[in-house]
Structures are given as C-alpha cells and as structure tokens.
Amino acid sequence: MPGVRQAGGVAELRGVAVWRDGGAVAVPADAPVVTAFDQGLGRGDGAFESVAVVDGGTPHLAAHLQRLRSSARLLELPDPGDAVWHSLLDAVLAAWPADLEGVCRLFLTRGLGEGTPPTALALLAPVPAETLRQRAEGISVVSLGLGVPAAFRAEAPWLLGGAKTLSYAVNMAAQRHAHAIGADDVVFTSLEGQLLEGPTSTVVWAAGGTLHTPPLETGILAGTTMARLFAHAAEDGWPTSVTPGTVADLHAAEAVWLLSGVRGAATVHTLDGVRRGDAGLSARVRELLGR
Ligand code: PLP
Q1: What is the largest CA-CA distance in the chain?
Q2: N or C, fewer C-beta in 10 Å, the chain?
Q3: Other Cβ atoms closer than 10 A to 183
C-alpha cells in the first residue's frame, strides 16, 4: 500500500535523470545536475509537466508530452522530442517499485541561454501523503483574484497563457495564502470575477446534469485530466460544456472538483468557508477517470 511505503525511506526512493551528451543519465537524487547559471534556476525560464506514475508506468504520458511541446512552442524553446523524454523516464523508472504511486516531473529549461542546448530533466518521487489525503477526503478551497481581465491573456502572448512554465512562484504563494487562512487550495478568478483555474488544477463543476469547465481563452492551462474526464463522460452520456462561470456558479453547483493528473479529482467540500456537497457524483467522476 502506497501509504505504508511512504512512511519509510522516501528520500532513497527519489530518482533523477538528466539528458547529457546525447543520452539519459541517471544520477543520485541529491547530486548536482545543472549549473547555477541555468536560466531555469535564475528566471524560471522553462516549462514542466507533472506526470502520474501508476503501476510502475505512466498511462497518461502522451497528453503531457503534447502539452510540453505546446509550452515549448509558446516559450520559443527547442523541443528535445518525445524520444528524449521517454529515455529520461525509462532511466528514472527503472528501479521504481510498481506498487508505489509516484509523481514524475519533466523539466525543460533554456539552459545557459542563446545558442546552447536546453536542459532536460526527469525527477521522480513518491506522491506526497498530503496529496493522497486531499484526494481521499476532499478539499477546502478559497477564491482569489489573479488581477487579469478574463479576455486579456488570449491577446497577450508574452504572458504565456496556456503554457505550463516553471514560473510557479505566484501559484505556490497563492496556495500558501490559502493554507494561512485554513484552506487547502485556491480557485483563481479574473478581474471581473470569471472562474479561471487552480494554481495546479482545472476547475470542473456539475450543474443541470452537465459537467462544466472554464474556457481556455481565459489563458488557463489545458488540463489533461479534465480532457480525459470529459471524453469519458461524453462516451457515458454525461454532457460536458466549456462554460464561463463565477464563484456564485460554484456555490450553486451540484458538485465542484479541482482536477489534476497526480491528485486526480479532489472534491471541493468547502468553498470560501461555506460547506458544500457533491450530490454523490464524485464516485462517478473517479470511475470515469479510472477507465
Ligand atoms: N492548471 C494548472 C495551472 C496546473 O498547474 C495544472 C496541473 O498541472 C492543471 C491546471 C491541471 O493539469 P493536468 O490535469 O494536466 O494535471
């Protein structure tokens, strides 16, 4: 059981692989792998993906690699290609126990800058116990303003809307703010109060017999978990819709989830301090995601 394994020796279970001289090299988890001059370190200038590791494999890798290619394009970074990522994953997964759920982070940075190759890394670690708890017990969420109009980022490519960049300091600060006021996570809203996304998740709500999620034109990330849920729901006869929404729509919804690859569908049991139910729909969402 993942929880039991996590109680012991998490540190020695971590793995790192770096792309070096045309090949994937596995290195000890705490060994230095990039120079201090790497643009990813100093500027957060790069892209990443967090990929779920289940039963020793990465069942949803293809969608993550597709988004990584898209992020690289938006950042004008050379994409090293899927073969590089597959080699890095093989290198970190080689010694991974099949019964332990993991999270594999793929990092692509601008390296030393112009004319030098990008840095490509894979980092593997057990899924944190807190993530498993939130998946099982649900989450308390607060809505926080992101300070951008909902339509702005679609017209402002320099803001990198839709790219999963390494510049997650704001996302992490928003989560710390949530923790400081007793919540687990955040739903960002636009200047006008339109729903955007969580700092590390996609917002999905059930209302009127339909699953809803906000439009990508707001500059949010295209969630791979949301896409998988919506595809399976549609096959199952559960209508889906891309719908602009507000926090009031979430309060009025039958159920609200924050979706992401590693945590899965985290049921929102409290929104801005108000308890809410899920109308028994979370089990169906989990079943659809497990298909
Ligand atoms: N939105 C943001 C900002 C994220 O960081 C993530 C997670 O990585 C998501 C949405 C959900 O994406 P996915 O379902 O592909 O994990």
Answers
A1: 55
A2: N
A3: 20
Best CATH choice for the domain 132-289 from the list 1.20.1730.10, 3.10.129.10, 3.20.10.10, 3.90.226.10: 3.20.10.10
Q: Residues 109-148: pLDDT tens digits?
A: 999 988 889 999 999 999 999 999 999 999 999 999 999 9
C-alpha to C-alpha distance for 95 and 7, rounded to whole angstroms = 19
Residue 213 beta carbon below 6 angstroms from any ligand 1 atom = no
111/18 Cα distance (integer angstroms): 12
Q: Could you tell me the pTM of the whole model? A: 0.95
User: pLDDT (tens digit, 9 = 90+) per residue, 9-38?
Assistant: 555 789 999 999 999 999 999 999 999 999
CA separation for the pair 148, 109 (Å, rounded): 26
Dihedral over Cα of 139, 145, 147, 148: its sign: positive
Of all protein residues, the one whose alpha carbon is nearest to atom 5 of ligand 1 is 200
User: Ligand 1 within 6 A of 221 CB?
Assistant: yes
Calpha distance 157→142 (Å, rounded): 28
Interior/surface letters 186-218, b for 16+ CB within 10 angstroms, e for the rest: bbbbbeeebbbbbbbbbbbbbbeeebbbbbbeb
Q: How far is the CA of 21 from the centre of ligand 1 (A)?
A: 31
The reported pLDDT for the residue numbered 12 is 74
The CA 115 to ligand 1 mean position distance, Å, reads 30
Residue 235 gets the label, from left (phi > 0), alpha (psi -120 to 50) or beta, of alpha
